[in-house]
Amino acid sequence: MRDPENICEIAAFKPDYLGFIFYQESQRYIGENIQIPDLDPSIKKAGVFVNAPVNDVLNTARAYGLDAIQLHGTEDWEYCRIIRSNKLEVIKAIAIQDRLPVNNLISYTGSIDYFLFDTHTPYYGGSGQTFDWELLQAYDLAIPFWISGGLGLEHTERLKHIYHPEFAGVDANSRLETAPGIKDIERTKQFIKAIRNGTI
Q1: Where exactly are the structural domains of the chain?
Q2: Burial tier of 139 (Cβ tally within 10 Å: 0-12, 13-18, 19+)
Q3: pTM of model > 0.70
Q4: At what angle do helices 54-64 and 77-85 cross, to 10 degrees?
């Protein structure tokens, strides 16, 4: 998100997290010197980065009061551990194509808080497409995960029927937008309401 008014409107629905993209190549880049409005303390501010120098991430986290760092590049477990040692939650995005790379995920144990399983694309960032959720049955690590990739209102019932002990949440973006970085108020409200079993 990047528009202060839109941020405040969505924050009224008390999402668990709001995301802010600090990757300059993204069409949703937050921009320079944007002021993030004061949020309810229950809402965590997540900064999204792609292969940024560690010090840049930490400095940005301090400047914007970020609570969580979402990493979408090739950041390894050592990188993640440094970020996490600075009392920041770490969410590591993993691109899924035709299989779950379980063996490659083991190294992140103890270095991150969540995996974010997203649909593989040839570039950094979301595809707006879902991946085969049946692949999650191969996941047996003790690290909670979120699902991402083109999630919208049409997916909420299926999401509520994913029974996996480490399934912890969803990351929705493009299908709730009216333009890059701008959320549709009613669609976002209904999505959050549906995920929370009819309450908001």
Answers
A1: 4-195
A2: middle
A3: yes
A4: 30
